[in-house]
Design brief:
heterodimer, A: 476 residues, alpha/beta, Amidase signature (AS) enzymes, 11 strands, B: 482 residues, alpha+beta, Arc Repressor Mutant, subunit A, 3-stranded antiparallel beta sheet, 16 helices
């Protein structure tokens, strides 16, 4: 019986002959079959395929020809395309759609002998903070089935914490990896914008979206990033900055850390979240790191800026789902216009429709200057101010989320309340910086929550090394 | 005064030129006309979820070439934009184009104005964009068929200032644009196949008025002569409307080739709000001065440059030069001949005369013409040497050269067409003829100069047609005027 929670343990067991890839996959399949009907993390399990691949990789291991991720079993958020597999972004509009190609991240994982075990539930088109906006229904938090796992990569977080796979890929447009990681007690990284190819990621907001891992350990996140990061000719916005050996951490050094006063003083921040964070800050200071409380007076502008720009891009990105070329089409439409209106009205969920309408509005003639252009200007300011701040500091420290996982259905009523969930995470997507949530804490309510660190563009190696150091020294 | 003479037309043209790049603008799909429908359609072209555009750098190169050819300002930082609208042949639901940062601004196209003088039509902008697929409404009685082979084919849109004043000028303008794109090799200029398309913005105003009238956009003109027809019709229609107390409506109209008229497509109030915004999937392209200069060096064959070369260096007439540069391949053929002969005038005459007549007669393109330039140069040499007359060369020898690999001289020899240019034997014939007609000589001397024809005819007869007529004429004249 295995319950490896890190790839290192998996590798040791494989090496010692204590297990095989087939056994590992069988065990995950068993967990899925036992738990998934309650948790609802997987929307499709590639049982036969994963077992077949496990056999091949076992053979490779025995022949000594296996690659870096041999034995690594992953689940994939259902907005990342896998050749000859269905992909839906948890939307009815993609009903029956099969991808003709694989995302670059999938190609890279497979070429290192990773095993993909299935597709994971998420908020429709990655729009949401609780994984409640899915045509497949809500995902439950395995740590407390009455709570959400976070969103939009809720299935990705739930699958890992429920030990249904070792790690998953999610996508993060405004916190969709980090917030579920915080709610489920996992490590979640949003890489620097452009660090990981978006080719094959169903776009929500192109200039914000990044694919990243959700794992039990910082080491596994580093290892996966090493594999998936790097220039891709299929994504012209991907960066050609050299990919570091993220998994070989640098030796602990004394760091300069900025704490955003405005975050800690934020109304609505859970008292215990604040206290625990403050005690970590004290510990860091005691350990010789330099802590400075700085003011970042843009906090109130982050969420509105984020929603204006992401919905604008989404309204355009989602135009292709029109009932004409693929996916869902209304039966017996009268004409082309009816095909569009009726197919989209029927097959998009409320949140998606809300954001398409908002985005269409902010881009329309007469409002574009007031909303879209203004928000772009704010984005530029936030980027500049963040860069300025990071000239003097190595990291910016904040909570990942104002509180622990909330109850299913509780926040669905008022979308603007839900939008404030993203208050601490959207910063990194607006500015493009890498940011990580690490599972440092357990609340007295029994639920985990994370600490967020944000660093300079392309300094994931520092971010991961320091995260590993903190996990070693301070985790409860 | 005719009523229509009171008015003046104001016309601006938008020309879309499909670029002849090997692959599409944002994917590696082949860019080819006439392939089986929906076979040049990878997931990017189909707009499948998760796909991203991948820029084809040739598109930039071609757009820069056009900018250089018309003397535009070429932009350094080129951003792409999305133009959002729904249509069945637009798989992504938006077109990737350029909005506020077109790659070219300014420059001009030179045409011959209505008064015959050179006129410059200023270019407002040239921008890069992708074509949509093709909706075919008339093949299936119950469905519209969509072919996405054309989706993503690169285009440049060339927008003129409203400086065109007549259908004739518009005709000239499109002709010049087509000539240019063909010369620089970026578009095949085939309006029937839609690789060159033209929309016209047309308004009329009273002559002398400063304010523009209300403009109408006319689309779907699939040949240059239809551009002319459509504009003529539209000017007439607008004038008549105003004269009858009506008002021109701001609208888009479609040209109907069957009856030469235009019909209303949509009113501007119903027009789309395209919600332009910067394309987040493509990084801005930087066009450096260095790059522009590199491209400029490759553009040695612009029609204007050739015109100057032909008139100044080769001493050809304005008329000959214009005809020679009408078509790039013909101009190139002519240039090839001039590498082997200095007799430019005769070379021009043969190209514009015998060769073009032959091509027209057999509906051939110069690329299918069987006589090499060097053989034409040999034919010219034969004329220059006085071995055959111009007319024998361009009719008899030329005709045989079409079917034979023999040199011009060999053909002339084999057919006994080498003319006699031996002055001594020719002088002998002249003397004989003069001696034969003493009365005619007297008549000639007393003023009946037309009789020279008689003497020439006799000389040619004696030489059995081989005498060099020019030389013979000189000798006869000299003898008669002794």
């Amino acid at each position: 019986m295995n319950s490896y929670t890190s790839f290192k343990d998996t590798q040791i067991a494989l090496k010692n002959g204590k297990t095989t890839c087939v056994k590992i996959v069988e065990n995950y399949l068993k967990n899925i079959s036992e738990k998934n009907s309650d948790i609802n993390a997987f929307i499709e399990v590639f049982s036969d395929e994963a077992l077949e691949r496990a056999k091949q990789i076992d053979l490779k291991i025995s022949e000594g020809t296996s690659s870096k991720l041999a034995g690594f079993v992953l689940g994939i958020k259902d907005n990342i395309c896998i050749k000859d597999h269905k992909v839906s972004a948890s939307s009815k509009i993609l009903q029956g759609f099969t991808s003709l190609y694989s995302a670059t991240v999938i190609e890279r994982l497979l070429s290192e002998d990773a095993i993909i075990i299935g597709r994971l539930n998420c908020d429709e088109f990655a729009m949401g903070s609780g994984n409640e906006n899915s045509v497949y229904g809500s995902v439950r938090n395995p740590l407390d089935m009455t709570k959400v796992p976070g969103g939009s990569s809720g299935g990705s977080a739930a699958a890992v914490v429920a030990n249904m796979c070792l790690a998953t890929l999610g996508s993060d447009t405004g916190g969709s990896i980090r917030q579920p990681a915080s709610f489920c007690g996992l490590v979640g990284l949003k890489p620097t914008y452009s660090r990981v190819s978006r080719h094959g990621l169903i776009a929500y907001a192109s200039s914000f979206d990044q694919i990243g891992p959700l794992t039990n350990t910082v080491e596994d996140t580093a290892l996966l990033l090493e594999v998936i990061a790097g220039k891709d000719k299929m994504d012209s916005t991907s960066s050609s900055v050299q990919v570091d050996d993220y998994s070989s951490f640098i030796k602990p050094v004394k760091r300069k850390i900025a704490v955003l006063k405005d975050c800690l003083e934020r109304e609505g921040l859970d008292v215990e979240v604040k206290q625990k964070l403050e005690s970590t800050i004290q510990q860091l200071q005691d350990d010789g790191h330099e802590i400075t409380y700085v003011s970042f007076p843009y906090l109130d502008f982050l969420v509105p800026t984020y929603y204006v720009l992401t919905t604008a891009e989404a309204s355009s990105n989602l135009a292709r789902f029109d009932g004409v070329h693929y996916g869902y089409r209304i039966e017996n439409p009268e004409n082309l216009e009816d095909t569009y209106i009726d197919s989209r009205t029927t097959a998009f969920g409320d949140e998606v429709k809300r954001r398409i309408m908002l985005g269409t509005f902010v881009l329309s003639a007469g409002y574009n200057d007031e909303y879209y252009k203004k928000a772009q200007q704010v984005r530029r300011i936030v980027q500049n101010k963040t860069d300025e701040l990071l000239k003097d500091f190595d990291f910016i420290l904040s909570p990942t989320s104002p509180h622990t996982a909330f109850e299913i259905g509780k926040k669905k009523v008022d979308p603007t309340v839900m939008y404030l969930e993203d208050i601490f995470t959207v910063h990194a997507n607006i500015s493009g910086n890498p940011a990580i949530s690490i599972p440092l804490y357990t609340h007295s309510n029994g639920l985990p929550f994370g600490l967020q660190l944000l660093s300079k563009d392309f300094t994931e190696k520092d971010l991961l090394s320091f995260s590993s150091e903190i996990m070693k020294n301070f985790s409860e | 005064m005719n009523t229509s003479d009171k008015y003046e037309a104001v016309i601006g043209l938008e020309v879309h030129a499909q670029l002849t790049t090997k692959t599409k603008a944002y994917s590696s799909d082949e860019n080819i006309y006439g392939a089986t429908p929906n076979t040049k359609t990878c997931p990017i072209t189909l707009g499948h979820p998760g796909t991203l555009p991948v820029s084809n750098s040739k598109v930039i190169e071609y757009a820069v070439k056009m900018g250089i050819a018309v003397g535009s300002q070429i932009r350094e930082r080129n951003e792409y934009a999305r133009k959002n609208y729904f249509y069945a042949d637009l798989p992504k639901g938006y077109q990737i184009t350029q909005d506020t940062t077109p790659i070219c601004n300014g420059g001009f196209i030179e045409i011959k104005g209505e008064d015959g003088k050179e006129k410059q039509i200023e270019i407002t902008r040239i921008h890069m964009e992708e074509d949509a697929g093709k909706s075919i409404h008339d093949l299936d009685p119950f469905h519209t068929l969509v072919d996405l082979n054309r989706a993503g084919v690169p285009l440049i849109e060339i927008v003129s200032e409203p400086e065109i004043r007549s259908s004739g000028e518009a005709y000239q303008y499109v002709l010049e644009v087509r000539k240019l794109v063909r010369y620089i090799g970026i578009c095949d200029g085939n309006m029937e196949e839609g690789s060159l398309r033209c929309d016209a913005n047309i308004s009329v105003r009273l002559k002398g008025a400063e304010k523009f009238g209300i403009k109408v956009e006319v689309k779907n003109m699939n040949s240059i002569s239809n551009v002319k027809k459509a504009i003529e019709y539209e000017i007439e229609r607008q004038i008549e409307l105003i004269e009858n107390g009506g008002e021109v409506v701001h609208e888009t109209r479609s040209f109907n080739a069957a009856n030469g008229g235009t019909i209303s497509m949509r009113h501007k109030e119903e027009a789309n709000d395209y919600r332009f915004f910067p394309e987040p999937d493509l990084q801005p392209v930087i066009v450096t001065q260095e790059y522009i200069e590199k491209i400029r060096k490759t553009l040695t064959l612009l029609p204007k440059q050739l015109y100057i070369k032909f008139t100044n260096k080769f001493g050809l007439s304005d008329y000959d030069s214009i005809i020679l540069i009408e078509e790039k391949e013909i101009a190139l053929y002519f240039l090839e001949i001039t590498k082997h002969t200095k007799n430019y005038k005769t070379a021009a005459n043969i190209v514009n005369g015998a060769i073009k007549a032959h091509l027209n007669e057999f509906v051939k393109h110069i690329s299918e013409f069987s006589i090499s330039a060097i053989r034409i140069a040999e034919l010219i040499q034969l004329i220059d040497d006085g071995k055959v007359s111009n007319s024998v060369a361009t009719s008899k020898v030329f005709t045989q050269m079409l079917q034979s690999d023999l040199s011009a001289e060999e053909i002339a020899k084999n057919n006994n067409w080498i003319q006699d240019s031996d002055t001594d034997s020719l002088s002998e014939f002249v003397k004989q003829v003069i001696a034969k007609y003493p009365e005619k000589v007297e008549e000639y001397k007393s003023g009946k100069k037309g009789l020279i024809g008689l003497f020439m005819g006799e000389v040619m007869k004696l030489s059995r047609g081989k005498a060099d007529p020019k030389l013979a004429n000189q000798l006869v004249r000299a003898e008669l005027e002794k």
